[in-house]
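Look at one such:
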Amino acid sequence: MEKRVLVLNLDHSPVAVVTVQKAIVLLHLDKVSCLSAYEFLEVRTVSKSFDYPAVICLNNYKSIPYRGVLLNRNNLFRRDKGECQYCGSKKQLTIDHVIPRSKGGKSNWTNLVTACHRCNVVKGDKSPEQAGLRLANLPFKPSLAYFLAEYAERQASEWLPFLESKIAQ
């Protein structure tokens, strides 16, 4: 599988993830500089070999409008690591409103959690406290850096030093 390359803005905020081909082109055109390379990997041509870039940084600051993480079922399950936030089960997962919609709860990052079917039925139209349930983790709005760090832990540990300060934001 081909490794991806993290692109940072001049202020070291994550901007994008690109293919190694795109990263090499940007490096060749002097639009970016390489901050980190993958160990033991290289890009080879007939006559040259190059470090396989892991993290590149734009040489000029680009004003990029804020793009939050899209609230959808897939991203919600990723945030909650695919487990029920009440009992930890990974089977028959649904989405639960912590404060029920009938009680004025909104469909937003801080009110939605992943719940198994059984816990969702037990909770019903009540708050977790009224149903005798306790949340394992409080719901929060994840940043792009949060999901990139999750990817980095599995695929690209070279990214982590550049994302750690952005995850807390």
Observations:
- The radius of gyration is 21 Å.
